[in-house]
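Key result, reporting period 2: structure in, sequence out.
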């Protein structure tokens, strides 16, 4: 039987090759979201809706602190892939090493600051009583592991640049299984509740960090290898500027989630907070496919941009648009079909909460028709090393437009308007993404 040829960044990408190359990143992101879902199911069913609300309340802050990893991962991988496309592997390895060491140091610093200010953070989020205690405890455990969370996200992008997307997939599977097994043991068997969930998540992040770290240290024949520390301030600033859109996207998304939490708590109380938490878990499952595709294709775009292969840039954009269109329709249909079963898994024990969640799911899922193209558009400009446009798209999609709609829609349509605010935000983002793509097509010749 003939072995399947290894796909390289320099290849011409057909639909089959495109899907084969991005498939590991897609599965990796979907699996990451799924083990988060398992975490939520265990907590909601074994520890109750107050503990579940505590996770939903603090998780946006964890994402804000860990967003530096997304910045270095996306911005750094685009720069390193571009340098590889220019034919300078030695220089690419030096920049890669500087990125890993710098982000590790920042991760430790962020972790310490997070632990120091955990109580003020909880107070700022408006929690009190048992909800405040649960939120502080869960947050403290995850803040302790922020550096591994950052590096895990960073390595997902860098393993694709190293032409090891399958390894990224298996690392994610290993981390996910660690989380699921520990959830079962610590929450289901030992009854540790929220503490067990926090420890399970933290240990899974350690696994997701250590395995690729060992590969980059000990592997001598790969495209990228972690070497001696070096100081490359210009390249680091370039990585930060280029990846700022992804960091901004995660920070903005987290801030908007906090705003959503406040609005849901105001309109529907603790039930509203829990219902929105369910939607956020399910939302991540569906959009993770778009995130995985964008993550997987970005180094290919960066490589051909560096190699000045404009024909392949046109090919990648055209095929990606068609793939995303088909996937968007499929995601919407699937989410409508699964709204009731998914809601039952989380909150089937409470009929009022279950009905509220199902209703919200049916409305929110319309956004999946639009979000894939918006996510890809931002990643596309990041891959072209245009951090400004990418940051603008992310800033408006994840912060400006949602803030506008989350305040206006509930006034007009009540609780349904709060669920539908994301649809309005994605529609506005789609118009902006389309405008930027047309405006820059002659400059990049895609």
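The corresponding designed sequence is given below.
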């Amino acid at each position: 039987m003939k072995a399947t040829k290894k796909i390289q960044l320099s290849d011409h990408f057909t639909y089959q090759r495109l899907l084969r190359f991005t498939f590991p990143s897609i599965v990796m992101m979907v699996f990451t979201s799924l083990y988060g879902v398992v975490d939520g199911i265990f907590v909601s069913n074994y520890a109750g809706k107050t503990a579940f609300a505590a996770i939903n309340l603090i998780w946006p802050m964890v994402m804000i602190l860990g967003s530096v990893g997304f910045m270095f991962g996306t911005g750094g991988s685009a720069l390193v892939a571009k340098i590889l496309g220019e034919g300078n592997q030695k220089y690419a390895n030096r920049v890669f090493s500087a990125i890993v060491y710098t982000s590790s140091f920042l991760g430790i610093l962020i972790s310490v600051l997070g632990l120091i200010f955990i109580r003020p953070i909880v107070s700022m989020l408006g929690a009190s009583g048992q909800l405040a205690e649960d939120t502080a405890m869960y947050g403290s455990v995850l803040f302790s592991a922020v550096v591994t969370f950052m590096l895990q996200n960073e390595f997902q992008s860098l393993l694709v640049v190293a032409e090891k997307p399958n390894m990224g997939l298996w690392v994610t599977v290993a981390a996910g299984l660690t989380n699921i097994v520990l959830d079962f043991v610590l929450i289901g068997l030992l009854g540790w509740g929220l503490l067990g969930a926090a420890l399970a998540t933290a240990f899974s992040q350690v696994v997701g960090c250590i395995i690729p770290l060992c590969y980059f240290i000990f592997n001598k024949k790969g495209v990228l290898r972690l070497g001696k520390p070096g100081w490359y301030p210009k390249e680091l600033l370039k990585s930060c500027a280029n990846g700022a859109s992804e960091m901004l996207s995660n920070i903005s998304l987290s801030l908007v989630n906090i705003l959503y939490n406040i609005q849901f708590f105001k309109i529907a109380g603790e039930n509203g907070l829990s219902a929105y938490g369910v939607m956020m878990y399910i939302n991540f499952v569906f959009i993770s496919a778009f995130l995985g595709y964008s993550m997987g294709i970005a180094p290919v775009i960066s490589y051909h941009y560096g190699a000045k292969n404009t024909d392949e840039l046109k090919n990648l954009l055209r095929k990606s648009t068609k793939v995303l269109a088909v996937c968007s329709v499929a995601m919407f249909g699937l989410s409508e079909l699964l709204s009731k079963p998914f809601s039952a898994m989380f909150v089937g024990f409470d009929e009022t909460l279950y009905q509220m969640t199902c209703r919200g799911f049916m409305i929110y899922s319309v956004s999946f028709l639009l979000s894939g193209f918006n996510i890809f558009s931002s990643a596309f400009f990041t891959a072209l090393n245009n951090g400004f446009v990418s940051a603008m798209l992310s800033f408006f999609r994840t912060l400006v437009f949602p803030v506008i709609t989350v305040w206006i829609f509930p006034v007009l349509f009540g609780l349904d308007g709060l669920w539908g605010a994301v649809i309005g935000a994605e529609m506005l983002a789609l118009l902006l993404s389309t405008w930027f793509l047309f405006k820059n097509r002659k400059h990049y010749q895609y």
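The longest helix spans residues 233-306. The two ends are 38 Å apart (CA to CA). This case is discussed further under Risks and Mitigation.
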